[in-house]
Design goal:
30% of the residues lie in helices and 23% in strands. The chain contains eleven helices and 13 strands. The chain has an eight-stranded parallel sheet. The chain is globular. The two termini are 18 Å apart. 50% of the residues are buried.
Length: 331
């Protein structure tokens, strides 16, 4: 990573609301909109922006994230940020805004400031909301052309759901996400059948506080830590329990810690998914840099929205493309 950073910046934050494409459902509930916090950093006539997505699972609300940003010093230095904010949506938004500001101040793309290779498009999962088998089969059929489908599970009838998805998308690679909705017995029962159906991976089958059971279990279907994985400090507790980790900027506290967490996970022999909350292109933009070289990316947040930001990310057969300078990270 280069030594250049943005000068100490003044910060402001605001909540913005974006409707989803229909109702988005996981094992913990449903939503028809997402509320994000947009942070703006200004210094020396330049402006940078970043987005954080507050997540109730981690006791975050838009108001709590706004309060965290409002409680920061009058001017914030990037190097001091980890000491000022814990990992989470507030730090992720500020971290992204400061990298965007640094790029615009230096007149150099953010990936160059980070010492990264030129970014390329990344194939991403596309998420199918939890629903009835018939509804999920229809959604799978409508998206069968996509190379990777991520299937939300986590309740009675999961076997029927995944069979319906496979019937709707016979050639797609499948990943399932239980969102802490299973027990060890459910995993043991379902795993061989999911492997038979060509499922490649299951995310967070057990609650984060009950995942010690994974250490003593055969895992025919590889298991990825999501709610159990936050930043580098959380990795030591995952050894022997998980095969993959899902690194999300809103959990790590931003791109800076996400890159460090990815490197540490690889050093432990863990495979890496770079994922996202349901957010706009502004939240995904720095995650595209983190996802370069990842084993799997799940950066479909904007595709699940009915409305996105101007200068939104481009998605096509090559995947999600790096952000244009007008969105984030450009001089």
């Amino acid at each position: 990573m280069t030594r250049f950073a943005a000068p100490p910046a003044r910060l402001s934050a605001a909540v913005q609301v974006f409707p989803t494409q229909g109702t988005f459902t996981i094992s913990r509930g449903s939503r028809t909109e997402v509320r994000v916090v947009t942070v703006t950093a200004t210094a020396d006539g330049h402006t940078g922006q970043g987005e954080g997505v507050p997540y109730a699972r981690y006791a975050e609300t838009p108001d709590s994230v706004l309060a965290q940003v409002a409680g920061l010093p009058d001017r914030v230095d990037h190097a001091a940020l980890p000491a000022l904010l814990p990992p989470g949506a507030a730090r992720a938004a500020v971290d992204a805004a400061l990298w965007d500001l640094a790029a615009r101040t230096a007149g150099v793309s953010a990936w160059r400031l980070l010492g990264l290779a030129p970014p390329r498009p990344v194939i991403t999962c596309y998420t199918l909301s939890l629903g009835t088998p018939a509804a999920m089969q229809a959604a799978a059929a409508a998206n069968a052309w996509r190379p990777v489908l991520k299937v939300k599970l986590g309740g009675p009838g999961d076997m029927a759901r995944i069979e319906a998805v496979r019937a709707g998308a016979p050639d797609a690679r499948l990943v399932v996400d239980a969102n802490e909705g299973w027990t060890p017995d459910i995993y043991a029962d379902l795993a061989p059948h999911l492997v038979r159906l060509g499922v490649a991976l299951v995310e967070q089958p057990l609650p984060a506080g009950a995942d010690a059971a994974l250490a003593g279990m055969a895992r025919p279907l590889p298991v990825c830590a999501d709610e159990s994985c936050h930043d580098r400090a959380s990795l030591a507790g995952l050894a022997g329990r998980y095969d993959w980790v899902n690194v999300k900027l809103d959990k790590t506290g931003g791109l800076t810690e996400a890159l460090a967490t990815i490197a540490a996970a690889r050093a432990m022999g863990l495979r890496v998914m770079v994922g996202c909350m349901v957010g706009t292109s502004l939240a995904m933009a720095p995650a595209v840099l983190a996802a370069q070289g990842a084993d799997l990316a799940d950066l479909d947040g904007p595709l699940l929205l009915a409305q996105d930001r101007p200068n939104r990310l481009r998605y096509d057969d090559a995947g999600v493309h790096p952000p244009e300078p007008a969105l984030w990270g450009g001089p």
